[in-house]
Amino acid sequence: MLLDRCSCTDMYEALLLSIVKGHQEISEAILRHATYNSIRGKLNKLLDSEVFPNIGSEDSQFSSDINPLILAAQYNRFEIVQLLLMRGERIQKPHNYYCVCNSCRSKLALDQLRFRRFRLDTYKGLASEAYLSLSSRDPILTAFQLAKELRLVANMEKHFKNEYNELANKLSNYVVQLLDRVRGNNELELVLNKTGKKSYVEEYELLARLKLGIDYSEKKFVAHPFCQQKLVDIWYSDLREQAETGWLMFLVFITLLLFIYPILALIFIILPDSKVGQFLRKPCIKLFGSVYSYFVFLGLVVLLSLTERPSDEDTMSTEGIVYKWYQMYRENVTIQRTFTGSTTSLYPLPEDFHIRPHTPTGIAIVALVWVVGYLWQECKQMFERGFRCYFCDIYNILDTAMVLAYITAFALKFLCMAK
User: Fold this and answer.
1) pTM higher than 0.85
2) Segment 321-356, tens digit of pLDDT
3) HEC profile for the chain?
C-alpha cells in the first residue's frame, strides 16, 4: 500500500537506502513493484544517451549516476545482486578511455569530473566479489582480465590512479581467496589446469591457468602455497624420495646420471615411449639434461677455437696447384716499405707458411648440430606459445639473439672455407 502511494523518485531513494542498510525483504518488494519497471526502463535509456542519468532528487544522499546493481555490488549484497541479475540487469563496462563516441564526448564536455567518477563507480561494481561470483562463469579468468584492464586505466586516469590500483589489488586478493577454498588435490587440478581465455570453453591442460596467471603478472596467485605445492609435485614427480634422502645420496645420484646420460639420451631417441623416455621427460631430469647439453656445447666451442689454429702439417706447399700459383706470384711481386716517402729495402714473400684448414672439422660439424638443435627448440616454443606471447618474454628474445649469433658465426666460417 505504501509503495503504491510513492513517487518514482521516493521509491528509487528507498531502494538505494535499503541496499545500503542490507534490508533484503524491502529491496525485493520494491524491485517487484510495477513502478520500478518504469524506473528501470528510464535508466536503460539514459545509460547510452548523451546526458547523465538523473532520477534521484537533488538533495539525495546518493549520486544520481549510480544504479541499484552498482550500489549492491559495491556493498557486496549477494542476495540483492543475485535478484537483480535474475531480472536481467547487468553492469555495462565503461567505454575505452580514448573513446570518441557521441555519448562519451557529450558527457565529457558537460562535466568532466562527473564523467570520471561515473567510470570509477562502474569499475567498483564490476570488481566487487558479489558481482564477479554471481555473473561470471569463470571468476578467476574474469578477475585476471579486469585487473589487467584496471592497471592500464590507472596509467591513464592520473587523478584516480590510486583508486584503480586498489581495485586491481582487490581483484588479486579475491582470486587468492577463491584458491584458499580449494579442499583437495582434484579441485586444485581443475582450477590450475583450466585452459583458454574463453570462460565457456571447458578444456584442461597441465598448469594452463597458472601459466595464464604468469602472463597477467598475478604474483599473489602464482606464489600461493597451493600453486607452489603443485609445482613441486610436478617438478620431482616420482623422484621426491631421492631428493629428500640427503645431500650425499643426492650427489651420488647426480654423479651417476652425469655419466650415463648420453646413453639414456641415445635410448630416448630410439625408443621415446620406453621407461627411459618417461624418466627423461620428468621436469627435473629435463633441466639436468638442458644444463648438461649446454656445458657440452660450451666445451665444443672451446675445442673448436683451439683446434682451428694452424698446425705444422697444414702448409701452403701441400696445396698443389694453388702453391704453384703462389710461387709464380712470389717471383713477380715484391713488397716495398716506405718511410717518410723514401724506399729503404725490398722484402720477398716467404717461400712457405702455415695455413688454417679450409674444410670443416668433425668438432665444427657436431657444434653445428647443437646449434641447429637450439634453433629447433626455440621454433618449437614459438609455435606452441604463439609468436606474440613468445616475444613478450625478454628471456626468449635473448635466447633467439644468441642462437642467431651462433648461426651467423658458423655461416660466415663455412663461407670463408668455401671461398
Assistant:
1) no
2) 766 777 777 666 554 444 444 444 445 566 666 666
3) CHHHHCCHHHHHHHHHHHHHHCCHHHHHHHHCCHHHHHHHHHHHHHHCCCCCCCCCCCCCCCCCCCCHHHHHHHCCCHHHHHHHHHCCCCCCCCCCCCCCCHHHHHHHHHCHHHHHHHHHHHHHHHCCHHHHHHHCCCHHHHHHHHHHHHHHHHHHCHHHHHHHHHHHHHHHHHHHHHHHCCCCHHHHHHHHCECCCCCCCCCECCCHHHHHHHHCCCHHHHCCHHHHHHHHHHHHHHHHHHHCCCHHHHHHHHHHHHHHHHHHHHHHHHCCCCHHHHHHCCHHHHHHHHHHHHHHHHHHHHHHHHHCCCCCCCEHHHHCHHHHHHHHHHHHCCEEEEECCEEEEEECCCCCCECCCCCCCHHHHHHHHHHHHHHHHHHHHHHHHCHHHHHCCHHHHHHHHHHHHHHHHHHHHHHHHHC
